[in-house]
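Standup notes
- HV: blocked on the assembly model, inputs below
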Amino acid sequence: MRALVARRLLQAVVIVAISATATFLLVQLAPGDPFSNMIDNPRIPPEVRERWRARWGLDRPMHEQYVLYLRNVARGDLGWSFSQSRPVIDAIAEAVPRTLLLMGVGLLGAFLLGIATGVVRAGRRGSVADRALGAGTLFFYSMPEFWLAIMAMLVFAYWLPIFPTSGMTTPVLYDYMSLAGKVRDRLAHLILPTATLVLLTAAIIARYQRAALLDVATQDFVRTARAKGLPERAVLWRHILRNALLPVITLLGLSLPHLVGGTVFIEQVFAWPGMGRLVVGAIAARDHALVMAIVVLGSVLVTLGSLMADLLYMVADPRLRDHAR
Amino acid sequence: MLSRALLALVLCTFVACRPGDRRGGDAGGTMIISVGAEPDALLPITTTSVAGNQVADIIFERLAEPGDEMNTRGDAGFVPELAESWTWSPDSLSIAFKIHPDARWHDGKPVTARDVAFSFDIHKDPEVGSSVAPLLARIDSVTVRDSLTAVVWYKQRYPEQFLDAAFQVRIHPEHWLGQVKRSEYTTSPVVRSPVGSGRFKFVRWEPGSLVEVVANTAHYRGRPNLDRILWTIAPDFNTSAARLFAGEADFIEYLRPENIETIKSRPELTIARYGSLDYGFMWFNLRDPRNSARPHPIFGDAGVRRALSMAVDREKAVRNVLGEFGFVAVGPLPRAHLFGDTSRLTSIGYDPEGAKRLLDSLGWRDTNNDGIREKGGRQLRFSLAAPTSSQTRMQFSVVLQAMLRDVGARVELDHMELRAFQELLARKRWDAAMQAWRTDPTPSSIIQTWGIASVKDGVNFGSYENPAFDAYVDSAASSMDAQRANQHYHRAYETIIADAPAIWLYEPVNAAGHHRRIKVATMRPDAWWTRIHEWHIPRNERIPRDNIGLRPASAQ
Amino acid sequence: MTLASWLVPLAVAILATAAISRVWASAGTSGGPWGTAFNRLRRNRGGMLGLGFILFVAAVALLARWLAPFDPNDQLDIIALASRPPSLAYPFGTDIYSRDVLSRVVYGARISLSIALLAVAVSITVGTTYGAIAGYIGGRADAVMMRIIDALLSIPRILILLAILALWGRVSLGALVLILGLTGWFGTSRLVRAQVLALKAEDMVLAAHALGARGRRILLRHILPGVTSTIVVAATLGIGNVITLEAGLSFLGVGVRQPTASWGNIISDASADYAGLWWISLFPGLAIVATVMACNIVGDALRDALDPREIQPA
């Protein structure tokens, strides 16, 4: 088991290294650099821009920059963010918890809602509830993330001004609120973005969950349990659901890329100052170091996610555990 | 204390007295400015962004500011700021600036002539790479006569020599900035908490979120009316506008025509208009994008450029895109540079039939009836680039595309992300592009954008070259006589308008949206915030966030 | 054009669906694994409804010239008719350039559907080839090929697309299709490889090997038909996916170029003020949701009928 984990970890490192190199190439080959915005400023002569480029080593050949970048990263230096005027690490350290908050709440809600939906549907297969929930699931599953976010904002922030339009807290006034007020303010800002994320992700989970439940429900041990005369409810809870949770655990890992993608759009629409907004801004500003760091971090997150899912799967499924040993 | 009050009273009587100075007892209130972009830096010498300049201008000061009439020649109309007074040497080759004796940095240290000398030095230092450096080329040196007197020495006398010294350089504290290595002005953590001498003091900068400044109650010209100003940073224009509409912000520096209805539907909001020094145009590349030694196959011919100009109904286009927030541009300059004399400048008028006849006579005819004209096997077909960051320019490009189609020109739109657009311009690999220039307060700056010298080393990416135009601008800029200078400028404008290196489209009227309780002062076209210390919020109109007072934010 | 002209694509869709059902019915009687699948498909009412809707949208796209009341790029009157909310004359309203939104949505169906179809064709081709080769060769080459896929899958697709499109700018329609296609095949290749591995172990293939059949022949004759069902389901789900992606990219300002209308960039035409110009984003958005839903329903129906497990969209 330990050897297996070590091997998977090594693989993960290789995966991240490949994706980091690919990103570096992509970013470096693209036109423009952090100082491109000086180009069409009549007050800044070209030599000033050249001096800036030289100071940051942007005039050196690409392979030199690559080696330099790797060396810096190995030393724990992720570089300087031009668009944020501060070290990349600071910008990321600030944004990561915000995105994790959004994703964490979103994921938790999505799992609860998604599994519940799946259970209800599998439990009453073919009923009106099953079909209505099925249609609802499919509806949200088919929706572009940003469009749902825009519509939610239109309805609940503009036409019925219940929630704030954007941001994480009320600017300025937040700092002068009481503790209870602060909590309330944060919650109010959290609801629309997370609700959007929950609906979108729950739809994915519910689809898989129902399939998994139906899959397990036709297996031998369930038939045995039924034959023994256990009540249907007990069969569902004790035998089917427990085993059907396994594929959903894997889904946790698999849905991460989806979640990251969805978060980019939702942060953009609701001006949530997290990683998604950071990366869109960084790309626009040709902030290469920041783009690199975020994309690589995203790939680390996804790789870790699938690694964790694999391990969880092994722990949860005794057959695999024995096999691995 | 009494003498200070007396002095204030005297000053108030004799110097141009500002309403704000009288309202000492009514000070207070918080103003939140919504911006759609992060400042790049808060240090005046390194910032190149609009948001950064706003904050930097409010925290730091110049020796003197141009008055509202925006004169740039000599020192007429200039309002003293850090300099209490100044004296010209008889030969006009040096100006001695006397620092206000009560001026203090925000950390309490006095502002001295050494700080002035230091500031000029860092602005000229190539190691720092300030964008102002080229403008200071004719300043020879700055010496310290005594602790409060700095003397600026010039290599030659010229009409705008006062402007260059008093306005282009903002004064930085030597004792504070001197501790930072000059190559690290952008990266040092020290410069993220700037120490200035202005009416507001820096409090905090949380990237992606906000910048906060608070009233400098110890300022030598009296405290500002507002207690604090915050910039709340949104990722884009639409989100920043939404914050104003939602009551989360009090002021936005410019609105788009679509926003008018929303503003009108909110009784608490209103619009304040102010001038602009911008002008926008559809740029023709006069050189072949594939080989810059050759003229452009279509736009190399001034006749074609004129014909395409005649095909555009600029009045209609401006009304669609900018509504009441814009005029049709007269040429490569904002109206402010004409000093009210627009009557004699004639631009190319809307005449689609004339455009078709002109194109026909130039040999561009639609021989195969596909709706596109041809000449010598080449179609009248070109790409028009525009940056996605500018809603205005994108919208103009789509409108122009349809108008030019009607005279048989096929336009392919190339909407791209801003940085890619800028790189494209600089590489000169384009046919036509939507561009806008923000001009300096001085008309002589036109040489930087359309002069021959900036084809090679500057921003004249369309490669417009006309020695006559350059000569007129040169004579105007070096003429000490204002009347003569204006005549020369006029000829320069006529020349370039006739050459049609671009279709001059629009000149925006800036419209700021703000909460009614905020009473704004005159807003200068190039920098609306210059008199922000006079803005105030009447006591009876205040809302909860106005009553925070000067106390700092509670612990985060 | 009158409302009646909309009966044409409707009739086309109904007739075509009925015809397909008839063909499947006759194929179903012939038996075999595909026959049962067709039979099951035909009886899936939701699936047939979804199929009908997709055919309807396709018919609208083909008949756009007759259905659209205006030229989609015509600026009717940039002063008087700009940004009009829905009315009888302009049922979906007009956009900021005074173009008729209904006409743009109708023509947008063409662009959005063709982008999706072509991009999916690209990713299916590349993904199947890559996966089949990896699975067939096996060994170390397979391991390396799969690690590369893992790496590519670990970067969220939207980030790759955003990086490519935003950084490079100025992308033609063809290039957009290629980029969408070339970033969408990773999952497919993994599925195909797994299928190939499973099939390789089957007797039929082993026997062919024993009889001395060459690699390419085995791949084409015995293995590819076995993965067809996987590919069909992945493609159907993939079409819906690409429609959504294209819309998202247009929303971020890096999708289809003006003046061409795609459903995504019609929505982004409202970006100046989503609240004030709600009709510009609402109608194309509904078109997207309905079409993607139909694709997913059909994809699900196909999956149920063919029963390959856990197929991910291309």
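- HV (later): unblocked. The mean pLDDT of chain C is 83. Chain C touches chain B at residues 73-75, 78-79, 82-83, 96-98, 166-170, 253-254, 257-259, 271-277 (CB under 8 Å).
- Next: hand off to the docking folks.
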